[in-house]
Design brief:
By secondary structure, this protein is α/β, with parallel strands linked by helices. Helix content is about 30%, strand content about 15%. The chain has two domains: about 325 residues, Alkaline Phosphatase, subunit A, CATH 3.40.720; about 60 residues, 2-Layer Sandwich (Arylsulfatase, C-terminal domain), CATH 3.30.1120. A hairpin with a 4-residue loop joins strand 13 and strand 14. The radius of gyration is 21 Å and the shape is globular.
Length: about 450
């Protein structure tokens, strides 16, 4: 009898430990301007739901992604490793028959680790990591899925065309659907809410990858009318898209609250890269540059981490954090073992965000694009930028967030130190496995003008 009682108490204790493991919600927007959110001081578009999310947790004022454009950032996010380590340095062309285009199958993704740890996993939204069946999210650790496989999609009124990337059918759990929602952003928010409210006794992880406010800007007529005072039609439509995105995120956070899961859900929010040039609608003020570039406007993004049960609401964190930190952080809080065969490049952010770390988070962050056409490294306040064969540039971001004053000539020792760190990192990488499609190259070229 005593032994049976012991087993009962043990099971209860283990059950309690299981319930304390947080749910994981990773929300990624697409081409989101740094100033196009209220919690970064933006006033052009109301973002009450994102602002509330930031107020519920930690606003990371030096938040970065690992690449200045789309697909490579997503590859780094889901592996927790610099994507240049495995050759995913460009956007893959959309080709459902070519397995060489996309995230290599040799890489193990975050949801696969979490499945092994007993989590229910879901993907909703944009994929852009390879279009063959083996590379699809439902074959890479995501149990429940809804979205599109390519790099972008129409938001409303499309004619389904399996050969046209922005018109391909939406998929649900690996099967094409005939769904053509009134507006895709709203539909993704509803799907995420449904996932969150499903109860099966397991903790869950949801990767919610919106394609808003990426072009084409197709807000609803009603939402665009709310920004009728904006004379530039591109900017007006972009702001309306962001407003719809904010509402969709509100649908998600309201589902968390209604199901009593807010306190025990670890939420990340950031954009996949910096905003587009102003000619395509975004505002990156006060940062220099935009999507496609290694100046701050291409890689520094709105970045929030919320976990009300553990993190102080309304706080800020000023050390540099990265989208690469998501995987390491999530595995740590989920109680999953970190991989030994392929060490991750991120750190567990929670002790740092809670103020419990014994030392500041002072590791360097690195960037490379084009197989070595351009580089950047940030270490402490210093950032070195290497564009092609031009002399290295150096900026003190603590005093010059807009990267207006090149200090390379005045600080040769800092340049030498950062250059050496960058070269050591670069020797660990491989060449890109595939080139960006011509359309992506043209868009990148336009972004740099």
């Amino acid at each position: 009898m005593r032994f049976a009682l012991f087993l009962t108490l043990l099971a209860t204790a283990l059950g309690g430990a299981e319930s304390r493991r947080p749910n994981i919600l990773v929300i990624v927007s697409d081409d989101h301007g740094y100033a196009d959110v209220g919690f970064n001081g933006g006033k052009a578009v109301p973002t009450p739901h994102l602002d509330a999310l930031a107020a519920s947790g930690v606003r990371c004022t030096n938040g970065y992604v690992s690449h200045p454009f789309c697909s490579p950032t997503r590859a780094g996010l889901l592996t927790g490793r610099y994507q240049q380590r495995f050759g995913h340095e460009n956007n893959p062309a959309h080709d459902p028959k070519n397995p060489a285009l996309g995230l290599p199958l040799s890489e193990k993704l975050l949801p696969q680790y979490l499945q092994e740890a007993g989590y229910r996993t879901g993907w909703i939204g944009k994929w852009h990591l390879g279009a063959t069946p083996a590379q699809a999210p439902w074959n890479r650790g995501f149990e429940q899925t809804y979205g599109f496989i390519g790099g972008g999609h129409m938001f409303s009124g499309w004619a389904i065309n399996e050969q046209k990337e922005y018109n391909v059918p939406l998929t649900r759990n690996g099967k094409p659907t005939a769904d053509i929602p009134t507006h895709l952003t709203e539909a993704l928010g509803r799907e995420a809410a449904n996932f969150i409210q499903k109860e099966d006794g397991k903790p869950w992880m949801l990767y919610l990858a919106f394609n808003a406010p990426h072009t084409p800007h197709q807000p609803t007529a009603e939402r665009e009318q709310k920004f009728a005072g904006i004379t530039d039609p591109v900017r007006r439509k972009c702001l309306a898209q962001i407003s719809l995105l904010d509402d969709a995120i509100g649908t998600v956070t309201q589902a968390l609250a209604a199901s009593g899961q807010t306190q025990d859900t670890l939420v990340f929010f950031f954009s996949d890269n910096g905003g587009t040039p102003a000619t395509l609608g975004a505002d990156n003020t006060p940062l220099r540059g935009n999507k496609g570039l290694l100046y701050e406007g291409g890689i520094r993004v709105p970045f929030v981490v919320s976990w009300p049960a553990q993190l102080k609401p309304g706080s800020t964190y000023a050390e540099s954090v990265s989208s690469l930190d998501v995987a390491t952080t999530v595995l740590a809080v989920a109680g999953a073992a970190l991989p030994k065969e392929r060490p991750l490049d991120g750190v567990d952010l929670i002790p740092h965000l809670k103020g419990e770390a014994t030392s500041p988070l002072m590791r360097p962050l690195f960037w490379r694009i084009g197989g070595g056409q351009s580089f950047a490294v940030r270490s402490g306040p210093w950032k070195l930028v290497r564009i092609g064969k031009q002399p290295d540039e150096l900026y003190d971001l603590s005093a010059d967030l807009s990267e207006a004053k090149n200090l390379a000539a005045a600080q040769p020792e800092v340049v030498r130190r950062l250059s050496d760190e960058l070269d050591r990192w670069n020797k660990q990488l491989i060449d890109p496995l595939f080139a960006s499609p011509q359309g992506t190259k043209a868009a990148d070229k336009k972004a740099k003008k």
